[in-house]
Amino acid sequence: MKAEYKNWVPNGMIAALTVGTAALCAGTAALFCSGINPTAKKLLAGTAGAGAAVCGGMLAWSVYAHGKFSYSGKRQLSREIVEGTAEFITLPEGGTGLDVGCGSGALTIACAKRNPQGHMVGIDRWGKEYASFSQSLCEQNARAEGVTNTEFHQGDACKLDFPDESFDAVTSNYVYHNITGVNKQQLLRETFRVLKKGGTFAIHDIMSEGRYGDMVQFMNELYAEGFERVQLIDTTKGRFMTKQEAGLLMLGGSALLVGKK
């Protein structure tokens, strides 16, 4: 059995965009060949053609991104990001780590592999946006990888169902930017609430100022609150991807916030 971590660009999205593009192209051609009023024909065909161009552009991006993120492809960017983030997580003997928004279990399992002396807990709400991800898929992937020091549960990043200082490490990858209507710095504080004193964290996300606000000020606040070390690493400067690649994939602003409480 082989682990199946899925793709961050679902196959269903590509299929839907393919059908949409084909339908709009066919509609445009049919309008041009129709015998309707020339003015109406021009307007309707132009609208349908513009829709086909937009849909086709989205399809082209989706195919490109799907290839970059594929675990079986040549680039395997998802694997590089997951394993690179996991490198920052070290559990003490008998320690426990938390992965917030575990998806298909990739980061939880990568951290567990690197820390056989500890235990990793992955949580996710597994919503309809990523319907192919599930708790059972995470458990299947852990078995496929021969990993036994993991467990997976339903959970909410906005309100973690754990007491203060429950974990020796916390991590997350490309999760918080998807949560709308919530202050991202408050999400980080909720994550840090369950981190033990002396614990480590590694959070990777699109931490642009528009999404996260002033992260330098936030880091200074963490220092003032007693955090021992806080570092913001731009992962688009060759650590995980290049600036050009990040731009094409619309991942500009990707950064890794790491440190110790």
Strand tally is 7
CATH level 4 superfamily of the largest domain: Vaccinia Virus protein VP39
Shape: elongated
- Give the mean pLDDT: 95
Query: How far is it from the N-terminal to the C-terminal residue, by CA?
Result: 39 Å
Strand content: 15-25%
Order of helices and strands: HHHEHEHEEHEHHEHE
Gyration radius from CA atoms, angstroms: 22 Å
Major sheet: 7 strands, mixed
How is the largest sheet built, in terms of strand order? 3-2-1-4-5-7-6
Supply the CATH architecture of the largest domain: 3-Layer(aba) Sandwich
Uncertain parts: none
Instruction: Compute the number of helices.
Output: 9
Q: Which quaternary structure do these chains form?
A: single chain
How are the elements arranged and paired?
Blueprint: H1 11-33, H2 38-69, H3 77-86, E1 96-100, H4 106-114, E2 119-124, H5 135-144, E3 150-154, E4 167-173, H6 184-193, E5 195-206, H7 209-212, H8 215-224, E6 229-234, H9 243-248, E7 254-260
Parallel strand pairs: 1-2, 1-4, 2-3, 4-5
Antiparallel strand pairs: 5-7, 6-7
Helix pairs in contact: 1-2, 3-4
Key attributes of the depicted protein:
Rossmann fold; 7 strands; 44% helix; alpha/beta; 7-stranded mixed beta sheet
Describe the structure.
By secondary structure, this protein is an alpha/beta fold. It folds into two domains: 11-69; 77-260, Rossmann fold (3-Layer(aba) Sandwich), CATH 3.40.50. The chain has helices at residues 11-33, 38-69, 77-86, 106-114, 135-144, 184-193, 209-212, 215-224, 243-248; strands at 96-100, 119-124, 150-154, 167-173, 195-206, 229-234, 254-260. A seven-stranded mixed β-sheet has the order 3-2-1-4-5-7-6, with helices on both faces. Helix 6 links the parallel strand 4 and strand 5. It starts with 10 loop residues before the first helix and ends with a strand. The mean pLDDT is 95.
